Amino acid sequence: MTTSAMSTRRRLVAVLVVVALILAGFVARLVDIQVVRAESLVADSLEKMGGSSTIYAPRGDIVDTNGAVLASSIAQFEITTSPKDVKPIKRREGKKTIEVPVAEALSDMAGVLGVDPATLQAKIDDALAKNKDAAYALLAEKVGYEQFAKIRAMNIPWLYIRQTFGRVYPNGAVAGNIVGFVGSDNEGQAGMELSAQQCLQGTNGLQQFQQSKDRVPLPGTTETVTDAKPGGTLKLTLDKDLNWTLQQLVASQVADTKAEYGIAMVTEVKTGKIRAIAEAPSVDPGNVDGTPAEFRGSRAFQVPFEPGSIFKPLTAAMLVDAGLADHNTQVVAPYRYHPKNGASIKDALPHEDERLTMSGVLQQSSNTGLSILGEKMPDDQRYEYLKKFGIGQSTDIKFPGQSSGVLHPVDKWDNQTKYVTMFGQGLSTTAVQMAQVYQGIANDGVMKPLELVEGCSYPDGTVTDTPAPSEGERILSASAAKETIGMMETVVTDGFLADQLHIPGYRVAAKSGTGEQFVDGQLQTTFVASMAGMFPVEDPQYVVTVHLKSPLTFRSSAAAAPVFKEIVAQVIKKYGIAPSTTQAPGWKGTY
Questions:
Q1: What's the rounded Cα separation, in Å, for the pair 284 and 279?
Q2: Residue 288 has pLDDT above 70, yes or no
Q3: What pLDDT band is residue 299 in, cutting at 50, 70 and 90?
Q4: How far apart are CA 591 and CA 573, in angstroms?
Q5: Environment class of residue 473 by beta-carbon count within 10 Å: exposed (0-12), middle (13-18) or buried (19+)?
Q6: How far apart are CA 369 and CA 67, in angstroms?
């Protein structure tokens, strides 16, 4: 063999040896990956592939009729940690690397949050006690932006911060019982926050990313899978400023009269829109725990009561509408009246027999006089009128826990009930129901569905929940409605509260009431003092209703009169209502 051939053969053998060694290395590596370290490598790879996080959507605003914000969302932050990864931190200080103990890092964080460092350590310890490999513990939530920025600057690798949204109520307790509030999960719990949940709640988005073994997202791997969609803006019919004014007036009168609570409403006659619902006590949605549980809902919608004498205009209106009486129909009203069926009716204060017209019956708020006149109408016919007025039925407003009140069927009326239902006893209504009935009388006998919501607007321009157009339902003839209002005007001009109700230059119609309260047929010591009415009489624009539960310093409807008058004056001023240009007809109360 030549020297050249031998050299070629040696080179070939060398190449084959190198190739064999390389192949052996590959095989060894393959065995190491697929057999020796397979389980740990798979676990590591799965950890790197499984990262995802929620992109929280802001809850929509609640605004008043003018766009003033009643409830809104603000960015907040949630701070969590992986307890199993909590360890001292390596930090560079100049040319040196120092170690920061866990206790020191937690102390720095606690100082920003305003909490005890031991509280943070306890949350980590509790998680590890349950699971030594615990990868999650919530350290803080509802953290503000300033705190978030300071904590982020600490560069603590085992802290994870994500954005959430919190709820704020910039006007505090103004309309708080109507606006409602949310829970810790930002879900509606009461009021419009609850009933309009579908409008207000946004749709959360989703991010996916690769993460390291210690669950830290790898830079550049985050991808938004689904964008978050903010909730809609709920627009109410309420006027924030008017609601604030009413709330001050009602709260002041509740305090002055030592009443249990108070409610006042302003309703627009032509549209049925509620412009104000004020309650005292009122819940501050931003500090729910500061209000006793019984006052966190809306008593205007949820708490029925026997309305008493503010119900008398309804009975008078029925009689006029049915052609059975008019403003001048005469009656002799005794202090006590004993109908043939065995019932017993009496007026509030002893008096001699009074010769009253039906106008005078309303002026003097005579139970006996109205009972005698009311006998002209069969019970079945009166019951049908009551149903037409919406008594015993919830309003069309979608409000959580709304009460329908109580109207028993005629066949359940005992002898006493047949009479006392004429003047607001033996049945129950809510404040909202009474506002609706008075709106119907004021609107020439056409009762419109009450409105609290104007609509829900979404960021893409879509608008939902707008009230359906409605002509309303005729509950009385226009002539009967006008005559009823005329009789109520005599209460203001000639009734026993005339001095407290008269507003110079304006014709106002109203009726007072002191509703005794019964439970299981037993008379209670509690009562509701009320005033309800409309103005201006010649063309009613607004209905005002006021209710005070058990005022101690005025055990009569006189407790509600000052608030009613002041609200009427405020509405006149706010909406620029022109003075009346006609005079009251001067209907007589006696004959």
A1: 12
A2: yes
A3: very high
A4: 38
A5: middle
A6: 49
* Chain mean position to CA 426: 30
The helices-and-strands tally (H runs, E runs) of the chain is 19, 23
- The band of 305, judged by pLDDT with boundaries at 50, 70 and 90, is very high
- Is the pLDDT at 222 greater than 80? The verdict is no
Quote the crossing angle between the two packed helices 102-113 and 117-130, to the nearest 10°.
120
- 57 in Cβ contact with 228 (< 8 Å): yes
User: CA 21 to CA 17: how far, in whole Å?
Assistant: 6
CA distances to 104, 501, 509, 545 from 492, in Å: 74, 6, 6, 15
Show the domains of the chain with their CATH numbers.
52-236 (3.90.1310.10), 240-575 (3.40.710.10)
Chain centroid offset of residue 501 CA: 32
22: left (phi over 0), alpha (psi -120 to 50) or beta: alpha
Other C-beta atoms closer than 10 Å to the C-beta of 580 total 17
Quick one: tokens of 440? 């119907």
Quote the CA–CA distance of 30 and 37 in Å, as a whole number: 10
Instruction: Please work out, in degrees rounded to the nearest 5, the angle formed at the alpha carbon of residue 313 by the alpha carbons of 310 and 314.
Output: 100
Supply 106's token pair.
């937690």
Task: Report how far residue 576's alpha carbon sits from residue 368's, in angstroms, rounded to the nearest whole number.
Answer: 41
Instruction: Say if pTM beats, i.e. exceeds, 0.90.
Output: no
Q: How far is CA 382 from CA 34, 160, 314, 362, 555, in A?
A: 89, 68, 10, 18, 30
pLDDT at 580: 95
Q: How much is the pLDDT for 468?
A: 86
Buried/exposed code over 476-503 (b: 16+ C-beta within 10 A; e: otherwise): bbeebbbbbbbbbbbbbbbbebeebbeb
> Between vectors from CA 137 to CA 134 and to CA 142, what angle results, nearest 5°?
165
| Backbone φ, ψ for residue 277 (5° rounding) | -135, 110
Residue 84 has pLDDT above 60, yes or no: yes
* Residues 212 and 218: beta-carbon distance below 8 Å: yes
User: Helices in 225-351 by DSSP H: which ranges?
Assistant: 240-257, 299-302, 312-321
Distances (CA, A) of 344 to 398, 408, 417: 40, 20, 10
- Secondary structure letter of residue 567 according to DSSP: H
| Cβ–Cβ < 8 Å for 293, 535 | no
Tokens representing 430? Answer: 């809510």
Can you tell me the distance from the alpha carbon of 77 to that of 145, in angstroms, rounded to the nearest whole number?
7
Residue 512 identity (one-letter amino acid): S
The C-alpha atoms of residue 139 and residue 121 are separated, in whole angstroms, by 9
Q: Tokens for 6?
A: 């031998």
Give the 3-state secondary structure percentages of the chain, helix then strand then coil, rounded to 5: 40, 25, 35
Q: How confident is the model at residue 507 (pLDDT cuts 50, 70, 90)?
A: very high
Distance CA 166, CA 77 (A): 9
Whole-Å CA distances, 243 to 61, 250, 283, 341, 501: 18, 10, 14, 47, 21
Contact 314, 481 (CB under 8 A): no
pLDDT of residue 304: 96
Pairwise CA distance, residues 200 & 196, whole Å: 6
pLDDT at residue 440, as a whole number:
98
**Residue matched to tokens 């829109």:** 273
For residue 522, pLDDT beyond 80: no
Look up residue 220 and give its DSSP letter. T
Cα dihedral 412/415/418/420 (nearest 10): -120
